[in-house]
């Protein structure tokens, strides 16, 4: 058999390869315009989360009782008021920006913790002996059968409500989702022939799990994690609504939405802007994860490399 | 010009893919008359199924596009016919049988219900339909047709399911039956039965039979005329005997010379110290005995073929030897140490000495690893074989050894063809420098000409590297040129064991003889003789 095609020659130096790889990834991102927009938006959110409280922390808390519930799109009171103001006359734009920090800390923290712990337990449950697997699954059942809100209330009454404790509570309630998904996928993938081939070569269980099985599970987990991001943000707001979550004057997007709910008929912007921030963040994460799923899969990558309309 | 029952004229079909436009078939013409069997012969990607799909309106458009041509059924062009009229022809006048019957039968309805339903859809009365369904099941040779009517598809064996499919195709007394690789998924003995059933039914009903296949033996067995396709074009037409004995086109010549079972047989050397000595190996799944007292021994550098039909336990044997499954009892002495009772730790050291090449290279190679990663994984696991600095060099060497190029190392498995992927799998096995390679149906998923290349490669490796092989196959001709010894298995037991010459020239057991007689020879004259032999054995 003769091969006629050859790949374009590349230099063997590792450094050049590294540079080429980064350029390749950026090229693939450039070709998927949705993912590009999502990335830019997420970078802005991250910037707000890191620098927001520093830049606008004071403005977000300054009350202006004469400008209560000021409507948006008017800069008569200064450009901080371009998105309107809340029932205490605090400008919404700085508040949304400042709230990004707590929201991101809680959501990202909870999602990361629950997905990592859930995935690890799921890998063990799927690959280890059935007895170990059963113990882990029953644990997940216990968490799932216990109302998550009740669990949160109990834990947060005992511990002081703080960002760290919120993350722990939310993470625990979301672990079963990742655990069960991972386990189901592992059970399927471990039957595949390339896993057997690795076993025949003498690969250790750790190597099989992390080198052969985990990379096949990650795309699914990332997709679930991005959807969970929104769920966690809203769950956090309901905890805050009950008074056991974030304590004012600290703010999060979820808290702002629930506070604005009673004014929906008279001042819709109170709940709208933070709601929009939640939607856009989730959507951006979702678009980016979609792009990542394709970019990480060698059999799908060509869709991004050739560009055009064929991705998706 | 005389009118043919079905005629394809200058048909061209394209597929628009992201990688550009692909011509599936260009400008092909053939015809089929009443009472005739036409075989379309070609390897995968030759476009042999495309014209049949066009006839049945099964091409997805887009991405497919019929750019040119006519398909005339009794003189009327199917391609310009309104869709409603076409539906009346498809299924009723032209029926189709697929390769995988399980995928085309609905698992939640009984076979009888599905048969009756087909006829009801095309306007038969219920009593009439039920009577005829029973008749058909009887005709296609299912045991106790009354009981079969009430069974579900999964309760039948592969061959029986194919018979059910044939019954469904015949339900409306079609003028044409299109059979797309109807026997590829079946065992040799079952294949022979299904083919002769098709042959009989065709003679009885006078229908036209269009048979799409990659197997010269199938052509020799049933076809009146054959159309050979390659790269979307017809390269040759004629009777099977003309095409076989006097091929005109270089591709046909290549295809015929690639047919297995032509060359000289191996003469094994004298017996020495055994590399592997298996005795009394048993394995049961519940009440089903997959292995029932299997014993054999294997010399260093020897090739032993294990042949048997599906369910004979040959794959279980391989899996037990590699400890992918635990045998219930027995011994397998590898250089004097028992593989079956070895601890995991001891086994690890032996892993590199015994390697396996799997049936389907698409599944046995991790799709997310590049060829370099796949091959060098062996040295990550067993770092004592090779220092890291030499990995790159050795991967290039191994790729060259299996007939690939060094630049292939950076690619991923999906960028290769089936035969190339199997070469990668072989290179991966070689990376561990094994003394025994177990090939589990390693070539049965490949096209005939690729099969020949892979076997030639294995043969070369055996001579150069003195590796012993256990070569599992369901097809006898494939192992004829390659094996020193052949072991025939049936229901977990060894039926017969001997040198290749013994087995092929003077088989002692009836079962072996039946297997040999059921194999299809690409030479129509030889096949004719063999068919008579087979009928004699059955009678």
Can you describe this structure?
The complex is a heterodimer of chains A (312) and B (539). Helix content of chain A is 71%, strand content 0%. Chain A has 312 residues and is mainly α. Chain A has one domain (30-305): MetI-like fold. In chain A, helix 6 packs antiparallel against helix 8 (205-241). Chain B has a 6-stranded mixed β-sheet with strand order 6-7-8-3-9-10. In chain B, a hairpin with a 2-residue loop joins strand 9 (225-230) and strand 10. In chain B, helix 8 packs across helix 21. The relative contact order of chain B is 0.10. The chains are: A mainly alpha (312), B alpha/beta (539). At the A-B interface, helix 7 and helix 8 of A face helix 13, strand 16, helix 15 and helix 17 of B.
Helical percent range of chain B?
A: 25-40%
- Spatial sequence of strands, sheet with the most strands of chain B: 6-7-8-3-9-10
**Poorly predicted tracts of residues of chain A:** 1-12, 308-312
Give me the strand/helix succession of chain A.
Answer: HHHHHHHHHHH
Kindly list the characteristics that best describe this protein.
heterodimer; A: 312 residues; MetI-like fold; flat; B: alpha/beta; Rossmann fold; six-stranded mixed β-sheet; 22 helices
Short synopsis of the structure:
Chain A has 312 residues and is mostly helical.
List the helices and strands and how they pair.
The complex is a heterodimer of chains A (312) and B (539).
Chain A: H1 14-31, H2 33-61, H3 92-127, H4 130-145, H5 148-158, H6 163-189, H7 193-201, H8 205-241, H9 253-260, H10 269-296, H11 302-305
Helix pairs in contact in A: 2-3, 2-10, 3-4, 3-6, 3-8, 4-6, 5-6, 6-8, 7-8, 8-9, 8-10, 9-10
Chain B: E1 6-17, E2 20-32, E3 37-41, H1 50-55, E4 64-73, E5 76-77, H2 83-89, E6 94-97, H3 101-104, H4 111-121, H5 126-139, H6 145-149, H7 158-170, E7 176-180, H8 188-205, E8 208-213, H9 216-222, E9 225-230, E10 233-238, H10 240-245, H11 250-258, E11 276-285, E12 288-298, E13 303-307, H12 314-321, E14 329-334, E15 337-338, H13 344-351, E16 354-357, H14 361-364, H15 371-381, H16 391-401, H17 418-431, E17 436-440, H18 448-465, E18 468-473, H19 476-480, E19 485-490, E20 493-499, H20 500-505, H21 510-518, H22 524-538
Parallel strand pairs in B: 3-8, 3-9, 6-7, 7-8, 13-18, 13-19, 16-17, 17-18
Antiparallel strand pairs in B: 1-2, 1-4, 4-5, 9-10, 11-12, 11-14, 14-15, 19-20
Helix pairs in contact in B: 4-5, 5-7, 7-8, 8-21, 9-22, 11-18, 15-17, 16-17
């Amino acid at each position: 058999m003769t091969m006629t095609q050859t790949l374009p020659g590349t230099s063997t130096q590792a450094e050049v390869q590294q540079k080429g790889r980064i350029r390749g990834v950026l090229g693939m991102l450039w070709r998927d315009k949705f993912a590009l927009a999502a990335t830019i938006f997420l970078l802005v959110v991250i910037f707000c989360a890191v620098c927001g409280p520093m830049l606008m922390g004071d403005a977000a808390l300054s009350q202006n009782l004469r400008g209560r519930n000021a409507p948006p799109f008017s800069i008569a009171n200064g450009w901080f008021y371009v998105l309107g103001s809340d029932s205490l006359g605090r400008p919404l734009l700085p508040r949304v920006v400042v709230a990004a920090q707590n929201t991101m800390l809680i959501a990202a923290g909870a999602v990361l913790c629950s997905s990592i712990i859930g995935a690890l337990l799921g890998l063990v449950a799927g690959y280890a002996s059935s007895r170990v697997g059963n113990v882990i699954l029953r644990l997940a059942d216990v968490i799932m059968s216990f109302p998550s809100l009740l669990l949160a209330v109990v834990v947060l009454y005992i511990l002081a409500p703080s960002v760290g404790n919120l993350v722990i509570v939310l993470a625990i309630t979301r672990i079963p989702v990742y655990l069960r998904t991972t386990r189901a996928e592992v059970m399927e993938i471990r039957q595949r022939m390339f896993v057997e081939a690795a076993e025949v070569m003498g690969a250790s269980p750790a190597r099989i799990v992390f080198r052969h099985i985990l990379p096949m599970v990650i795309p699914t987990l990332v997709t679930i994690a991005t959807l969970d991001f929104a769920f966690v943000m809203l769950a956090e707001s309901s905890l805050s609504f009950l008074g056991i979550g974030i304590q004012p004057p600290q703010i999060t997007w979820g808290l702002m939405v629930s506070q604005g709910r009673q004014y929906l008929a008279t001042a819709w912007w109170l709940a709208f802007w933070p709601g929009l921030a939640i939607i856009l963040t989730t959507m951006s994460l979702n678009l980016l994860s979609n792009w990542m799923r394709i970019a990480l899969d060698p059999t799908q990558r060509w869709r991004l490399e050739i560009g055009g309309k064929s991705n998706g | 010009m005389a009118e043919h029952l079905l005629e394809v004229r200058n048909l061209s079909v394209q597929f628009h893919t992201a990688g550009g436009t692909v011509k599936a078939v260009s400008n092909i013409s053939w015809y089929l008359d009443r009472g005739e069997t036409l075989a379309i012969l070609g390897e995968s990607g030759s476009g042999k199924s495309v014209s049949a799909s066009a006839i049945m309106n099964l091409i997805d458009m887009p991405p497919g596009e019929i750019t040119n041509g006519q398909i005339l059924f009794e003189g009327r062009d199917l391609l310009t016919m309104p869709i409603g009229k076409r539906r009346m022809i498809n299924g009723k006048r032209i029926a189709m049988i697929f390769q995988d019957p399980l995928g085309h039968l609905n698992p939640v309805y009984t076979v009888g219900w599905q048969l009756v339903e087909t006829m009801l859809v095309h306007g038969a009365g219920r009593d009439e339909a039920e009577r005829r369904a029973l008749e058909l099941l009887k005709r296609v040779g299912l045991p106790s047709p009354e009981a079969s009517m009430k069974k579900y598809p999964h309760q039948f064996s592969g061959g029986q399911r194919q018979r059910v499919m044939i019954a469904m195709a015949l339900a409306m007394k079609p003028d044409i039956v299109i059979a797309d690789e109807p026997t590829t998924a079946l065992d040799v003995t079952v294949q022979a039965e299904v083919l002769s059933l098709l042959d009989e039914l065709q003679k009885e009903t006078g229908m036209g039979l269009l048979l799409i296949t990659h197997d010269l033996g199938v052509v020799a067995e049933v076809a009146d005329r054959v159309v050979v396709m390659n790269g979307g074009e017809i390269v040759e037409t004629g009777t099977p005997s003309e095409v076989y004995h006097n091929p005109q086109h270089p591709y046909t010549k290549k295809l015929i010379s690639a047919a297995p079972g032509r060359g000289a047989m191996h003469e094994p050397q004298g017996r020495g110290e055994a590399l592997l000595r298996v005795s009394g190996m048993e394995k049961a799944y519940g009440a089903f005995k997959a292995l029932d007292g299997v014993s054999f021994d294997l010399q260093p550098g020897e090739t032993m073929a294990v042949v048997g039909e599906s369910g004979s336990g040959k794959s279980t044997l391989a899996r037990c030897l590699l400890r992918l499954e635990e045998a219930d009892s027995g011994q397998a002495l590898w250089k004097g140490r028992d593989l079956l009772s070895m601890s995991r730790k001891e086994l690890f050291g032996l892993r590199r000495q015994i390697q396996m090449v799997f049936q389907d290279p698409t599944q046995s190679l991790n799709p997310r690893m590049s060829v370099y990663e796949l091959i060098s994984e062996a040295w990550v696991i067993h770092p004592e074989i090779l220092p890291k600095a030499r990995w790159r060099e050795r991967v290039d060497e191994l790729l060259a050894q299996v007939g690939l190029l060094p630049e292939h190392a950076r690619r991923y498995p999906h960028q290769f063809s089936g035969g190339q992927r199997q070469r990668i799998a072989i290179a991966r096995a070689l990376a561990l420098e094994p003394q025994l390679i177990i090939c589990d149906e390693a070539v049965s998923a490949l096209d005939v000409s690729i099969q020949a290349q892979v076997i030639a490669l294995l043969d070369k490796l055996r001579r150069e590297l003195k590796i012993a092989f256990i070569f599992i196959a369901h097809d006898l001709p494939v192992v004829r040129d390659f094996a020193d010894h052949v072991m025939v298995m049936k229901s977990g037991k060894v039926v017969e064991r001997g040198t290749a010459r013994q087995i092929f020239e003077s088989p002692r057991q009836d079962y072996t003889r039946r297997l040999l007689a059921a194999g299809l020879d690409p030479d129509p004259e030889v096949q004719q003789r063999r068919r008579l032999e087979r009928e004699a054995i059955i009678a």
